[in-house]
Write a structure and sequence with these properties.
Layout (H helix, E strand, L loop, with lengths): L1 E6 L7 H12 L8 E4 L2 H6 L3 E3 H4 L3 H8 L20 H13 L2 E8 L1 H16 L5 E6 L15 H19 L6 E7 L6 H4 L14 E3 L7 H12 L4 E7 L30 H12 L3 E6 L13 H19 L5 E9 L4 E8 L27 H4 L11 E2 L2 E2 L8
Parallel strand pairs: 1-2, 1-4, 4-5, 5-10, 6-8, 6-9, 7-8
Antiparallel strand pairs: 2-3, 10-11, 12-13
């Protein structure tokens, strides 16, 4: 049989390592012939845009470079697979292309919405006695997938966020005047990424002095009070805030700064909470204030990627192939943490239906009573995920990236 791997949703620093894991494991099995990559996710399947990865990855050097290249060399998409009852022709089209290429297993690297695609597709194939395995490989910097301890891509993003806030702290402390710096961090529904900045305390940092997450209601009045209280202790107050914080009424705090438009999955485009809070501090307190939106940089900053993250991403890709060869389908690969110190974890499978369209929130018990910071208990969860540095290939002072050839 042949296999195909594809990726969907927002990029990370670790997707290509999972692709490498799928590829390397597949090459070990004589019953797997061609190893395809679909360009731009499920759209690539529908539009017959497949590349032969054996031809693309001609050497061990190519594979090493692929592992350390950020984003996804196969491209991505935000395509929502319709319900079978609404449009069965889409499923029939996908299956026709699978059969054309003699595909026996489909591996989809992605987050919540990608697992929805795996769930729908595997269910359709099972109901119609189509013997093609569908396996989900987790990926998201948001770390919000159910049943897995963490997701590939999160550790590297968390490392970038914490390191960046540490550098912002150094910058902001050089002046004698009071200041407030607000760092806006990705996290639509769950605040894992903003919360991870608490690891800076392990090396004696006090910043970020305030952390706000979507898991608890946000009050602008309380925010102003919090800033004033922290200014009594620190001349430069650093704030980490998730983009998706909501008011008590349930609306996004920064809706007045947002477009109001939705993506293909019905999610509102988010940004602007940092600027909104900057204006609030300027109006209510009047001190020097700056907002910084980390934006896409936090997703693919491979120059400071976590080695643990990259290694685990490859391993979970490899195990996905083994799961399919073992007869599994309609599953997502997950990490099961055995211990924090020493850090140990195992890779298992869960039914993808329990993951699709659900959110794993940051634990409320790890948020302080004031709802403006993270308890120390969370540090031991985050620390193992950001460990280890990688040797990035450089040329003329810049990192070298792998790219799909001749497309």
């Amino acid at each position: 049989m042949n296999i195909v791997v594809a990726s969907s949703g927002g990029p990370t620093s670790a997707i290509n390592s999972s692709i490498a894991g799928v590829y390397l494991e597949a090459t070990k099995h004589s019953n797997i012939n061609k190893i395809y990559g679909a360009l731009n996710g499920i759209e690539g399947i529908l539009e017959n845009r497949l590349v032969d990865l054996r031809e693309q990855l001609g050497s061990g050097e190519d594979i090493d470079l692929l592992r350390l290249t950020p984003s996804t060399v196969l491209g991505s998409c935000r395509y929502k697979l319709p319900k079978v009852e609404d449009d069965v022709s889409v499923y029939e089209e996908i299956i026709s292309h699978f059969k054309e290429y003699d595909i026996g297993a489909f591996f989809y690297i992605g987050g919540n919405d990608s697992m929805d695609t795996v769930c729908k597709l595997s269910r359709y194939m099972s109901q119609n006695n189509i013997d093609i395995k569908a396996i989900g490989i987790p990926k998201t910097i948001d770390n919000d997938l159910m049943y897995t301890d963490h997701t590939p891509g999160f550790g590297s993003a968390a490392k970038y966020v914490a390191a960046t806030i540490k550098e912002i702290t150094r910058d902001s402390m050089v002046y004698s005047a009071k200041s407030v710096t607000i760092v806006e961090i990705m996290g639509r529904y769950a605040g894992w990424l903003a919360a991870s900045s608490c690891v800076l305390r392990e090396r004696g940092e006090t910043a970020p002095h305030l952390i706000y997450l979507p898991e608890v209601p946000f009050s602008t009045e309380k925010f102003v009070e919090d800033i004033k209280a922290k200014q009594k202790e620190h001349k430069a107050v650093i704030v980490a805030v998730s983009e998706g914080i909501k008011a008590e009424e349930g609306c996004y705090v920064a809706e007045c700064y947002q477009s109001g438009e939705n993506d293909a999955f019905g999610h509102k485009y988010l940004s602007g909470v940092g600027k909104m809070l900057e204006d609030l501090v300027k109006k209510e307190i009047g001190c020097k204030v700056r907002s910084i939106e980390l934006n896409v940089m936090q997703r693919c900053s491979s120059h400071i990627a976590s080695k643990t993250d990259i290694d685990e991403a490859e391993s979970i890709g490899s195990n996905a192939v083994l799961a399919a060869l073992n007869g599994d389908t309609g599953k997502m690969m997950v990490f099961d943490r055995i211990s924090d110190n020493p850090y140990r974890m195992e890779i298992k499978t869960v039914d993808v239906g329990g993951v699709a369209n659900h959110v794993k929130y940051f634990p409320i018990e790890w948020i302080n009573e004031e709802k403006n910071n993270i308890k120390d208990e969370a540090i031991q969860y985050f620390l193992p995920l950001i460990q280890g540095e990688l040797s990035i290939k450089m040329d003329k002072g810049m990192p070298v990236h792998f790219r799909i050839k001749n497309i």
